Amino acid sequence: MKEPMNQQQDHAARPIRRLFVANRGEIAVRVVRACRSVGVEVVAGASEADLESLAARLADAVEVIGPAPAGESYLHIERVIDAARRSGCDALHPGYGFLSERSAFARACEQAGITFVGPSPEAIEQMGDKITAVKLAQAGGVPRGPGSGALTDAAHAAALARDIGYPVLMKATAGGGGRGMRVVREESELAAAMESATNEARAAFGDGTLYLEKFIEHARHVEIQVMGDAFGNIVHLGERECSTQRRHQKLIEESPSPAVTAELRAEMGRCAVQLARNVGYVGAGTVEFVLDETEGRFYFLEMNTRIQVEHPVTELVTGFDLVAEQIRVAQGRALSF
After folding, report:
1. Among 103, 185, 282, 287, which is most buried by a count of CB atoms within 10 Å?
2. DSSP character for 39?
3. Could you tell me if 125 and 116 are in contact, meaning their C-beta atoms sit under 8 angstroms apart?
């Protein structure tokens, strides 16, 4: 990758010598390999059940976080931070899932003097709450479909759903991965769907708050990969089409999308970059849209403030190593492309 002509980068540099991977499985292996490519030592944080995992075998060292249950290891902020400190790490990569989108975790890393490879706690807070993210998107001129704010009870939800028009999509404000999400096609289904979604969201995210959006039939799900650095450089790297899903879980990702024209790509990319710029975004993120093909319009859904499972699709298309780029900008350096 060509080095950008940015004289500021040397003044803001905070080199990463040893990085802690606070995750397991595929993404942990991915981060280990990225560290190898940029010459950074890497420590795999592992539960007692994962000490012989591939990531643990590939890393320079392994540090035990806690017992096998995720709540006692990968989801336990204090234990993760203590393990990173014990192993002499000056940076931490959260991967995806687990603590990756917890602003409290990013803030705890800062307080411990550990560089968090990801956006600021403030950006995570702003974009992690879906209702706040929607308001920021609208304020920045990013289109949003008919929807609501936080739901208080079933009667409130029913009144809002009637205004929006069925079918509606019930979503968790702290949600992701399809959890806490229900399609409601008529009012008789609403109360049960709300109870089920609330319980699922509370169990998955510790927050059962829900909101509504108009459910667009036969829409496409298109997401834009963005990357930013601390100097205000923010770019988008095109789209990934992820409309083929089962139970709101993405099954197939492709790029470019067969439904996105050059003009539409430019406009969606502009909106994604503007939203990231509005929150001072640094690192890798994904802005998700729903595309209504019948009207040729797109609407903001949410922003994921982390690297995604699907990032290799964009890497194959662009030739850029996004995880290595995350490490680069976390060191206070400018984007390399």
Report:
1. 287
2. T
3. no
* Catalytic member of 220, 306, 328, 333: 306
Q: Which residue has the tokens 């739901």?
A: 151
d(CA 337, CA 325): 9
Instruction: Read off the pLDDT of residues 38-70 as tens digits, 9 standing for 90 and up.
Output: 999 999 999 999 999 999 999 999 999 999 999
d(CA 84, CA 73): 12
| DSSP secondary structure letters along 147-180 | B-S---SHHHHHHHHHHH-SSEEEEETT--TTTT
Q: What is the pLDDT of residues 243-276, one digit of tens each?
A: 988 877 889 999 999 999 999 999 999 999 999 9
Report the alpha-carbon distance of residue 109 to residue 119 in Å, rounded.
12
Q: What are the φ/ψ torsions at residue 4 (nearest 5 degrees)?
A: -70, 155
- What gap in Å lies between CA 144 and CA 333, rounded to an integer? 34
- Is 306 a known active-site residue? yes
Beta partners for 42? Answer: 19
Give the C-alpha separation, 278 to 288, whole Å. Answer: 16
pTM, two decimal places: 0.89
Identity of the amino acid at 172: A
SS3 string, 95-126, reads: CCCCCCCCHHHHHHHHHCCCEECCCCHHHHHH
